[in-house]
Amino acid sequence: MIGSVDIIITVLYILGIVIIGLWSGIRHQHKSKAKGAAGEYFLAGKTLRWPTIGLALFATNISCVHLVSLAQSGFDTGLLNGNFEWMASFTLILLALFFVPFYIRSGVTTLPDFLEKRYDRASRDWLAFVSVLSAIIIHIAFSLLAGGIVLQTLFGVDMYTSVIIISLLTALYTVAGGLTAVVVTESIQTIVLLVGAVIMCVAAGVKMGGWEPMVDMLQQHGQMSKLSMMRPHGDSSGMPWYSVFLGYPVLGIWYWCADQTIVQRVLGAKDQDHARVGSLFCGFIKILPVFIFVLPGLFAYALSQKGLLDVSALQTMVDGKQVVNSKGVYTLMITQLIPKGLVGVLVAALLSGLMSQISGALNSISTLVSYDIYKRYKPQATDRQLVKTGKIAAGVAMLVSLFMLPLLNSYESIFNGLNDIIAHIAPPITCVFLLGIFWKRASAQSSKLTLWLGSLLGVVVFITSKLMPASVIGQIPFMMMAFYLFCACVMMQGLFSYVHPVRHTTDSETLYWNSPFDALKGPSWKGIGNYKVLSVLLLVIMSVLFYLFR
Fold first, then answer.
1. Which architecture, in CATH terms, is 4-32+42-548?
2. Are the beta carbons of 508 and 446 closer than 8 angstroms?
3. What would the DSSP string read from start to end of 260-279?
4. Which residues are listed as membrane-spanning (predicted)?
């Protein structure tokens, strides 16, 4: 439980974010009515600049799930799950170099809209359905679950009561203000979230006495592998080094390059350079989570081994053995390591992650439903009707997410549960996007069949692994399963493209690269702001980091 001062700080922060969100969104729409209400509401009138895009991308990605579950993973397996954060930088480079030009050039409002221009209407419909479903499960429901666990522990309020209140307040400014409200509040929330995460990391590090005492403790207990991000074959984590390099790109390209909730910030860019540099800016920020989200969990493990962090409240019996249920380790760190007054800042950081994730997902869902579903059946729909439909869709999505919480709570690790689901959703989508922009012979019929059959295969494999965990399928780690499913989808689309040869339209003829080097041609900003310079710099930094923590 936390004190009254911290409660006041938390309440003031929530009210401040709601007021800023409402003010910025409604003000922007009021000033821009002549430009078209729907474009202003869903894409902020395509006025976003690179700092806002980068911060909003990061804020939409980082949520309570990351704060809570990355600390849990640091406690359980050390720095290993930091791979998900650092590998994201490589996929953001792909987004900036190869995907952004087509997204901006085609002038699409949604990614399903892009898929229709490159392939056909059937591909668009399927991606719209999957995008809405994934936004509800991955971006909203899992975030609510992580936030609810923390708020229940800290405030003693029923989990469902707390998440319903936060959900309603977030939906209020998101539905009223549109994308402008989302990106403005996300920029603020990112800063608060980072400040809170740094405070936690410093507090844990100071309590431990620094890096060296932690390393000494790990060495004494034979746990030096916790400092390694590149694990050998047969590692108990189920995530050896090759699964990271084979499996993550399948998850990452879908998440960062083909998921509406994430890419919508890029679609609202002022121009191509702002979109590219904003994506790369997010890539640089993604270096931080390993040190401020994962490392505190590792510090917590070391502190518990030295008796400086009391984890008795988390202990439970499993198969006759007493083990630590590490889901609540972040909350435990807040209550035991953070002085009063700063606890309110940490709670504000948690709420920042929760609210930014929800707001981004709701705005994307409303955009998808309005443009890719409603407008298809009512092509003459006015901007006012599109916005109204989007607002209704956001409200329904929020309710569905709340009802899913009990089911998702069955996962032992929230972070692994989230990525397990992504591993079975992503392969066919990653496949059709990659082949679509890099292979001119990828046909519309092949895209449709690959999306349908690939998604069906993913569902069958997922259900089989859960019903028969001892089977061959059930024993395959989710990262490698993502790679195997992706390979199957590539073979499907290659075969179907041979059987059903491509027939390009006027739009699709311009939406693939004849050569990857074509992406590097054309005018761009000069100096350090040039996207090519930034891409090389980010590649070098990430390569050095992976070498140091190999």
1. Up-down Bundle (1.20)
2. no
3. HHHHHHHHTBSSHHHHHHHH
4. 6-26, 47-71, 86-105, 126-151, 163-184, 191-211, 239-257, 277-303, 342-371, 392-409, 421-439, 451-472, 478-499, 531-549
Contacts of 31 (CB under 8 A, 6+ apart): none
How far is Cα 304 from Cα 344, in angstroms, rounded to an integer?
24
- Token pair belonging to 143: 């975030």
Distances (CA, A) of 356 to 18, 22, 78, 349, 517: 11, 14, 27, 11, 36
Indicate the SS3 state at residue 315: strand
CA 26 to centroid of chain Cα atoms = 27
**Which residues are bridge partners to 323 per DSSP?**
316
Residues 490 and 244: their CA atoms lie apart, in Å, by 19
Sequence-ordered list of residues with C-beta below 8 angstroms from that of 25, at least 6 positions apart, any chain: 173, 176, 177, 178, 180, 181, 182, 184
Q: What is the pLDDT of residue 36?
A: 47
Phi-psi group of 158: left, alpha or beta (phi > 0 → left; psi -120 to 50 → alpha; rest → beta):
beta
Output the pLDDT for position 37. Answer: 52
Q: For position 30, what pLDDT does the model report? A: 65
Q: How many CB atoms lie within 10 A of CB 423?
A: 27
Q: Does residue 112 contact residue 260 with C-beta atoms inside 8 Å?
A: yes
**Nearest-10 Cα torsion for 461, 462, 467, 472:** 50
Do 320 and 174 meet the contact criterion of CB atoms below 8 Å apart? Answer: no
Rounded to whole angstroms, the Cα distance separating 47 from 481 reads 40
| Partners of 318 in the β-ladder | 321
Sequence-distant (6+) residues with CB within 8 A of 186 are: 55, 56, 59, 60, 356, 359, 360
Tokens (6 digits) for 234: 């047969």
Query: SS3 breakdown of the chain: % helix, strand, coil, rounded to 5?
Result: 80, 0, 20
Strand ranges in 472-550 using DSSP code E only, listed in sequence order: none
Nearest by Cα to 269 from 72, 532, 464, 49: 49
Query: Which tokens hold the place of 180?
Result: 């402008």
Per-10-residue mean pLDDT, the chain, length 550 = 78 82 72 54 68 85 79 92 95 96 84 91 92 87 81 76 80 69 71 84 93 92 91 87 95 92 84 94 94 94 91 76 79 86 80 74 84 84 84 87 81 77 94 96 96 96 90 91 97 97 92 90 90 96 93
* Tokens 């899913």 found at: 404
DSSP 373: I
Q: Which of 69, 505, 104 is nearest to 329 (CA)?
A: 69
Nearest to 185 by CA among 201, 197, 199, 174: 174
Total Cβ atoms within 10 A of residue 159: 18
Query: How many Å from the N-terminal Cα to the C-terminal Cα in the chain?
Result: 39
Q: For residue 184, what are its two tokens?
A: 């403005």
Name the β-bridge partners of 269.
48
What is the three-class DSSP state of 216? Answer: helix
Q: Which H/E stretch holds residue 12?
A: helix 4-31
Smallest CA-to-CA distance from 228 within 87, 416, 77 is with 77
In the numeric block, which tokens belong to residue 236? 């108990």
